[in-house]
Amino acid sequence: MRPLFPYCLNVHPGENLADIRTAIDRHTLAVKAHVAPEASYPVGLRLSASAAEELAGKTELEAFAGFLARRDLFVTGINGFPYGAFHNTTVKASVYAPDWATRERLNYTGRLATILAALLPEGETGNLSTVPLGYKKSGCPPSEPSVYVRTLSVLAEFLHQLHQETNREIVLALEPEPDCLLENTNEAIAWFEDQFLFEGSRWLSRNNRRTRDEAETLLRKHVGLCLDTCHFAVAFEDPLTALIRFESACIRVARVQLSAAVRITVSEESLHRLTAFIDPVYLHQTKILLPRGEIISLPDLSVDTLKAAGQREGCELRTHFHIPLFFADDGVLGSTRTDLTPDFFAHVQEQKYPLEIETYTFDVLPPALRSASVVDSLIREYEWIGKTAGWNDGRPTGN
């Protein structure tokens, strides 16, 4: 049957609970009316640290659960990547702070897990997407690798206890992203195998609390990856190949985010077109593939980036700017949506990976790529996915 999957609410401004409720009533219900008019519809919740604080009390959490139930909505995942404000302000590299070397990130994510466990139906599995450890280019050296391992091991043990107490299984999904400590398939697999599983299982088995094998099983169960197809495309990686490699390494893929990046062949015209994508809000890591396979990394999309790219005429450039999946190549601007093939969707469906549409850039899209409304844009993305995947009209109504 056609899978039922959400879009991420990080497309809507909403740093507090009142704004989230408004976005759901104004936008999510309109999308549901098209995508799943007669079925319960999943919400890809996004909670900032302040919004999560609002839901810390039992009364507030029960009220929010009732709010969702009355609208025939349910939550199976939370975007726990941005800790602070995500709209109408300069976000850029601050989106990675606090990172996984800090108690703030640990406490925030634990609170999200508690919220998700309360919203999930009993016996169900949910996921929390999060920062891929931290940002490589923060201006200061990253913390010792053991710090990240220790903090994430603490979170994994908390999720294990939460599962035992509530019968809700929650998986933390580290989301590899360009220029972060986990950037691509090679880095993610190496970190899991050489650091996290080795050091984490040793730490969780100290004092004979459990065997090393039991500790590793716990870590593999509760810590995995979120594969964002835009991020992997910017790294010039094929998402289907990445999924197969993660499966071979027995790394859990807890969520697949469907999104696309801008791609161009460098020319005077294409670089001119890219100026419309320069914005003061989000970080748009940019990479250029050279003829012999070397990849040049530029930290953001800026005037200086375009000048540097001008020296690489004829090469392919990709930038971390999420564009709607329905946008097709226009002869100058291209999209990495071509990576999302029928084979990719067939594999995702076969493996029953949780899916989510994530195009959070609606408010900063150039006018030529923007639909009449965010609801119209989301509906068109669902329709493109349905058509490409062979799910008929793109209106997923079953599991």
Kindly describe this structure.
- The chain is an alpha/beta fold and 399 residues long.
- It has a single domain, classed as Divalent-metal-dependent TIM barrel enzymes (TIM Barrel), CATH 3.20.20.150.
- It contains 13 helices and twelve strands.
- The strands form two sheets. It has a seven-stranded parallel sheet with strand order 1-2-3-4-5-6-12. A five-stranded antiparallel sheet has the order 9-8-10-7-11.
- Strand 2, helix 4 and strand 3 form a beta-alpha-beta unit.
- Helix 6 crosses helix 7.
- It is globular, with a radius of gyration of 20 Å.
- The C terminus is likely disordered.
Q: Could you give the topology of this structure?
A:
Elements: H1 17-35, E1 41-46, H2 49-54, H3 58-70, E2 73-79, H4 103-119, E3 125-130, H5 145-166, E4 169-174, H6 185-204, H7 212-222, E5 223-228, H8 229-234, H9 239-248, E6 253-258, E7 260-265, H10 268-274, E8 286-289, E9 295-298, H11 303-309, E10 316-323, E11 334-335, H12 342-351, E12 355-357, H13 374-389
Parallel strand pairs: 1-2, 2-3, 3-4, 4-5, 5-6, 6-12
Antiparallel strand pairs: 7-10, 7-11, 8-9, 8-10
Helix pairs in contact: 1-13, 4-5, 5-6, 6-7
So, the CATH homologous superfamily?
Answer: Divalent-metal-dependent TIM barrel enzymes
Radius of gyration, whole Å: 20 Å
Give the number of helices. 13
| Assembly annotation | single chain
**What does the largest sheet look like?**
7 strands, parallel
Mean pLDDT value = 95
Span of the ends, CA to CA: 6 Å
CATH topology: TIM Barrel
